Amino acid sequence: MSSTVTNDAPEPVVLTLDEVFTLSRNVLLRHGMSEAHADAIARVITQGQRDECHSHGIYRLLVCARSLKSGKVDARAEPTLRDIAPGVLAVDAHYGFSLLAFETGLPVLAQKARSQGVAAMTINHCFHFSALWPEVEAIAAQGLVGIAMNPSHSWVAPAGGTRGVFGTNPLAFAWPREGGLPFVFDFATSAIARGDIELHAREGKPIPPHWALNSDGQPTTDARAALDGAMQTFGGHKGSALAAMIELLAGALIGDLTSMESQAFDGGAGASPCHGELVIAIDPRRFGGDGYEAGQARAERLFAAITAQGARLPSQRRFEARGRSERDGVKVPRALYDDVLKLLD
Amino acid sequence: MSSTVTNDAPEPVVLTLDEVFTLSRNVLLRHGMSEAHADAIARVITQGQRDECHSHGIYRLLVCARSLKSGKVDARAEPTLRDIAPGVLAVDAHYGFSLLAFETGLPVLAQKARSQGVAAMTINHCFHFSALWPEVEAIAAQGLVGIAMNPSHSWVAPAGGTRGVFGTNPLAFAWPREGGLPFVFDFATSAIARGDIELHAREGKPIPPHWALNSDGQPTTDARAALDGAMQTFGGHKGSALAAMIELLAGALIGDLTSMESQAFDGGAGASPCHGELVIAIDPRRFGGDGYEAGQARAERLFAAITAQGARLPSQRRFEARGRSERDGVKVPRALYDDVLKLLD
């Protein structure tokens, strides 16, 4: 490990990606995780740290340890697969974290997408672990289009409402690009991540009025009042409609909890949300047939028309960070690093 | 026809839904449409008028006549079906309007969704006709979840950009509800419908600055400058990401035109956009299995939590209009009615 520390000012610790993986894996094993879960989660934590999504990097080990302490997560659950239709694979995570369930199901989902053209994978009874972009990127790495979504806890009010019903309900999408990084987005249908409101509350800073409502259902600039009230969706009634769609598709459709139910299930423990997830994979070769290459070229012309006018494709910041991290390693704040090391005690 | 007219002030003409259908069908036949196309389009125009979506009611007959005059639309094209994968049906509209293609493919799509769990229908080489809600509602009427999307013309700039790349790219979704109207939304990924900007321009009224950019790529409140510039997406970079997804899924994936290409194909004729469409159908019975009823109940609890706090479900205004129209008939402005009658000359 090539860390640089002085005695006065805490400088960040520099870790290689292999070191991030090993550290994460060791912490997870130390907290009772099975090897399979520890590997799956450590891989995604390494990806988060690599892409400088700091709340999804090794910081997440602290969240994970708290979730394990809540006693609801099964750290050794073995996912089971069930073929429920030619186009649908159901994975039961048995109240373990979601990532091993995703990894276990992915080869079957990919095979179904190739044979059927379009296929779905439902993941049930999982504790949410990370952003969804690692999953849709893994689908795109197989040459398939990926879509993923899940509910969370009911922090978000519907448009025109005053109380939380929806989760922050992320929607992620990836389009595979020949010989390059995919076109990827992964966004919350809430106006902002809940963590951003928490950060403002900690720092006593005001928030923009379209982020949240106070407990009287009125827009507020007070971050603490927002945490006692409800968040807003992005984009008004359109974002609210999307959030509802995600509750329906990744909750009611797949026989798993809505965000309201997941919140109740948590019972104030503050663990990661327990819910289901819907993943869709589409084979562009089956759709495109002889025109597959032409479709790829058409997509590239679309991307070029966006970037040629100075606009960015989604995820470009992550991809730039990825390049830096693969070359130079990642910088971890000393205090965070120390907190993570304590998890090894 | 129970119209009420005085000689001084033009009162609206009141028509029954049957009268709307017959009038629409006659106009379409008079303009050279085949019976099959005229029936399919007249049905959807009647639905639009019934739900008081005025731009999709009999007003649309004027737009349709203009599109037919452009000479690009084949008013008698017979859609052909091709089974390209167990989960994918491809419908070629052969440069006719989209609705007959949708109607022709729907039974096969529904059968595929029931046998595969999830299935897709691509519609290629069609001229756009209407909103997408009649299509996803038709899917929901079969007890299936429906999703539909299509590009249009490249009027909309990507977030952070200055020039049009995306269409107004609608996304529609319907969830079937036992014994009732479905949960339905259908929204443009642009901040506003293009027609609303045109209306403001005609009336010389300013527009909100988040609707559009002028030709220098700056936000503008001048509706005429907006029409010469580019529209904005709803919801900033998130709406922009969704708009891109629709170009990819309902353009590049399915071997059809992106909005930029559709605009070029139109060549200034001002016809309805020519493009493809992606329709997805999901069978909740296949996903839910023995838990299907529980999933339906879960969805109803979600809807109740929304409406109990005074928020509305999407499409409620349409459904209320539907009730009124089925009971009392529809009111059509006299001038519009006269313009439509002239199409019969």
Automatic annotation (TrEMBL), chains A, B:
Look up the domain of life of the source: Bacteria
The record's comment on protein family reads: Belongs to the LDH2/MDH2 oxidoreductase family.
Instruction: List, alphabetically, the PANTHER family matched.
Output: MALATE DEHYDROGENASE (PTHR11091:SF0), OXIDOREDUCTASE-RELATED (PTHR11091)
Segments spanning the bilayer are none
Mention one GO molecular function.
Answer: oxidoreductase activity
Q: Which UniProt keywords apply?
A: Oxidoreductase
Keyword Oxidoreductase among UniProt keywords? yes
Could you tell me what this protein is called? Answer: Oxidoreductase
